Amino acid sequence: MNDRRSFFMITCIAFGFAFLYIPILSMMVFSFNASKLVTVWDSANSPTLKWYYSLLSNEEILDAAWISLKVAVINASGSVILGTLAGFGLARFARFRGRFTLNAMVTAPLVMPEVITGLSLLLLFVALEQTIGWPAGRGITTMTIGHMTFSMAYVCVVVQSRLATFDTALEEAAMDLGARPPKVFFVITLPIIFPAILSGWLLAFTLSWDDLVISSFTSGPGSSTLPMVVFSKVRLGVSPEINVLATLTVAAVTLIIVGVSLWMARSARAEKLAA
Amino acid sequence: MIDVKAIPAVKASPWNDPNVRPYVRLERLTKSFGDFKAVDDISLNIYKGEIFCLLGASGCGKTTLLRMLGGFETPTSGRIFIDGDDMTGVPPYERPVNMMFQSYALFPHMNVEENVAFGLKQDRVAKHEIAERVATMLELVKLGGFAKRKPHQLSGGQRQRVALARSLVKRPKLLLLDEPLGALDKKLREHTQFELISLQDKLGVTFVVVTHDQEEAMTLASRIGVMDHGEIVQAGTPTEIYEFPSSKFVADFVGSVNIFEGKLTEDEPQYVRIASEELGATIYVSHGISAAPDATVWAAVRPEKIYMSTEPPDGTDNTVRGAVQDIAYLGDLSIYLVKLPTGKIVRVTRPNTSRHAEAITWDQQVYLSWDASSPVVVTR
Amino acid sequence: MTGRGLVVVLPYLWLLLFFVVPFAIVLKISFSDVDLAIPPYKPLWEWTGKNALAIKVNFNNYVFLFTDSLYIKALLNSLKVAFFSSLLCLIIGYPMAYGIARARPALRNVLLLLVILPFWTSLLLRVYAWIGLLKANGVINNVLIWLGIIHEPLTMLYTPFAMYVGIVYSYLPFLILPLYANLEKMDWQLLEAAEDLGCRPWQAFYKITLPLSRNGMLAGSMLVFIPAVGEFVIPALLGGPNALMIGRVLWDEFFSNRAWPVASAVAILLLILLVPFMMWYQSVQSNESAGSK
Known about the structure:
CATH superfamily of chain A: MetI-like
Number of helices of chain A: 12
Number of strands of chain A: 0
Helix content of chain B: 10-25%
Radius of gyration of chain A: 23 Å
Structural class of chain B: alpha+beta
Number of domains of chain A: 1
Largest interface: A-C, 95 and 87 residues
Order of helices and strands of chain B: EEEHEEEHHHEHEHEEHHEEEEEEEEEE
CATH class of chain A: Mainly Alpha
Oligomer: heterotrimer
Number of strands of chain B: 20
Strand content of chain B: 25-35%
Strand order of the largest sheet of chain B: 6-7-8-3-9-10
Order of helices and strands of chain A: HHHHHHHHHHHH
CATH topology of the largest domain in chain B: Rossmann fold
Largest sheet of chain A: none
Distance between the termini of chain A: 40 Å
Shape of chain A: globular
């Protein structure tokens, strides 16, 4: 009876993971395909790195990647600050004026369809430019502001849930030993929730790096991000260079996520041992 | 109505009567997890109407044994018979056995009444009968007014009684209780122990209780099985376990005890003498034992069976001198730790019968002595 | 101001300015007229002379949305697609979340990581991957022809089927994670208790696990449903020209037709439709975190 049940479970899980991974794996395999037809394997000349060279000498993609990188880094750093403050406030202060509003404001961007957020941000920027002259035109600044608005919500959730399992006795002990609240935050709380903040940073970076819709609304001429370039290429059909880009992205993400997870698992174990 | 005229609880000792058929029979039961034997070749008979307590430290295999009785674990080898039927491979939902879980496992999305009715609904008992039996059961555990409450609206003691009602309402042949009082505070625990006994008395259901609390086992049990490393090291009535432990482990695990190692010097059917270096004296025991001559044996003496006086007692057997090293005042009694010249520390308890008991105090020289019938001699 | 106020004031003001205020502007513009200017709409109010303020509220954009059947159709179709996508995610995701929650702890973390990993790689690239799989000379058709199951390539790309595949594929992790978090907290002894009281395993699942995971299912489905209603990228890339989704309509009104007031009206309509679901989601979430304490 037990065996049949677990057989069913294993089949379901295997099917689910196949569904999640086959598309990604097929992209990776075909990034080494010589044929321009992408999905028709040219066994005579494959595997080849030719599309890798081609991607790395594609000015348009490289420029867009550089813009994306700038936006993503500034966005991640800003979001971490705003999101940590919001998460800390929500997790630690049971009651303050505007708590309900703040909570609603950080939950809403998580589920809000991007077209709405994008449109409303653009209209805000246009209205601001008309009335106070800032921001003058749209570009990296407006995109970054747009990205931060929804990224900080994700950071806030991550930080908040980490603080929920945080033993407040540690903070109380520090205060008992004479540290004032700001000092307690920087010396005790921050180091302990650092893994959560790091994953918040990575999350915010990725959200920004991947974003198409909000960038499209809030970008200006000459500030196309990588997803915007990819989108216009993909709309015209498959392209071998995009396979290469996808492979590189997956490889980088896997390395970083697995590395960070291992590091966090180790520090979590150390924390458990110390406790 | 639940039939309360009931089977009388075990007043006689069916385990001593070869003609009584055991109600639950375990035959060479073993459960391994990989290389680890959680339960190791246990054979045991439990009789109808008993409260049988499995007592042991955590990890001794008592919970695994209980879970095998409930059908949650399949034995690696051996058989389980309940009321004559082989239950070894029968899944939990087909066993006439119910379990009261340590966490109570009350369904959080159902109220008290729905929780208690759950098992009867599974058996497709008629609706009006379910209502009647649930109401009677809730009255019996004194929760009549709480039928519509959800588990999280109840106190710990009330939850415990819901769990009990839920497992009893199906009238199981055997009720398994996993640390039934473990989550309650001390006062409530004592009170509940007696309630549990009277309930069992009324319903006549056979109980198997797992506990690590020896006091709980002593109060509840008709018999106790002391477990260690997957084996039952001794099974017997609370008195037998306490007064006649079969090994150092049992003597030490149940209650506190002073154990003196020694060599058998005289071995007669009516008495023995043991020379103990640890004690610095000879122990005289007024009953015979079975051990090889010159064997190393251990004499176990309970702290409450040791007399302590400032004057030398009559007779020379079983008497030593020592100095009081420490005193712990517990209210009803006091514990004295007395250091013998050999360095051995002896534990003595004395009831505080009068408010100004003759003052035996720190560093005082005292005489310790005990009756020749008090020591229990064990060979392992 | 207290120390507490100082902590939250920055994120609070930020969200107020860049998240809440913009909706007011969207609302305002949805009542404006289209204009051939930059920006392409007429102001809602104007100083006409010394002390007179002329306010022109115009409901034409909304009237237009309800008279042209395109918008209503797109809206209904978006709701339908989002609903069935959530359902499909639930059907595929529930066994996965359940299996992960019941796996050995070491294995559990690995499986969880595998669920999260695709979420970290670009949505755009993952959707793109399906183009390669689904197109006429794509991987799936090639494999099926090679196996001899079909002789002519199936038309899969640019169909509703492709769109569903894309949405379910992209949003599956969003359903699995909250559901897993819910199931992981469950006391498995409740299932043993149910079996002890006479339930077969599937009955115990139906009577105990399923009702207790209700909040997790709701939260997860909502995380799929709400964004899917307004989804733009997936219908644009996989759905083909006939995939009528409201997010796409908004995009086209804005970028192709430069009809900002109409796009704003669509956004407001969509928002009104989604706000009840968002509030539901939030109440489910706060129930869920209250339940875990």
